[in-house]
Each structure stands twice: as C-alpha cells, then as structure tokens.
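Sequence in, structure out.
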Amino acid sequence: MIEQELAQADASLPIGIDRHRHILRQRHSPWPRRLAITLLAAFAGLGIANVFGQVAKVTTVDADPASLTVDSPEHLRGGLIYTSVITVVTHRALQDARLHLDTGWFSGVTFNGSAPQAQSETSDADGVLFDYGQLDAGVDMPVWISFQMNPTTVGARDQDVSLYDGTTLIATVHRRAVVFP
C-alpha cells in the first residue's frame, strides 16, 4: 500500500524532487506534540502559581522599641524589576535609626534607588547600612527600594534586614530569596 502511494507521489513530482516520499514514509505520532504542549502548559501554570517570583511576601518582627516589616518577593527571576518596601514603626524614640541590608540584597542585582533618601549610606563586606537619624515615637517610616535582578544571577541567597538604634540591634527580619533563570 505504501509502495503504491510512493510510486504515485514520484510520478506526479518534477524530476529531482522527492520530499513527498519522505513525508509518506514518516508516520507522525501525536504524542510528541502533546507532550510539548503539556510541558509548556505546566511551565505557564507554575508561573501563575508564583513559583518563579514577583508576588511579594510580608514579614514582620515586633520589638519593644520598634517593629520592622519587609514586603518583598522571595522568588525572583532574571530581569525582574521590583520594589521592596521596608517599614519601621517606632514605639519609642530612636536616636539614630539605621537599616542594615545583607549582601544578598545587592549581589547580582541592580540597585535603582530608594525613597526616602538616607542621611548617609555605607557599605562593607556584610552589606549596606542606611542611616536615617533620629525618629520620634509613633513614626511610621516606609522605605521604598527599587531593584532589578540581573539576568545572569541564579541561586538562593540570604536577604536579612536589621534595624539598629546607633549600634544597638533592635530587630532583624530573616529572609531567603531564590533566583530563577
């Protein structure tokens, strides 16, 4: 049966063109296409379920002098532009409020800016220190920080945030971020 179809295909083709012969010999199964579509749909479903990032997670730590809240994604992907909000709510006056962000916030990341601006910023091997000076009791101070994840960055990293009054540690939010390609 196949030989008759091949002979008919050969007779109807111009000399030197035999591509139909190859097409007739191949018996395509729908299963590779179905598998490919299923894999694409699963990948899209994982993205919708926030496996690859973007939806922020809010973490709060309360202490007597102040509370510290971090609102930032824990799952990121290369190229993602996102904003993290770190909020300090003072329960009593702080003489020298400082926010310390671990190196995981800045390694493989483009820092686009922060608002409000700190009075001073310093960095060392442990991270970056933002100094906001004196804060009165009852102050609610959100700090918006804009980042972009570099496309070549992949892996897990610690992203702790600590609040200090001068050199006295008040509160630390422990976070772990995972970066997908």
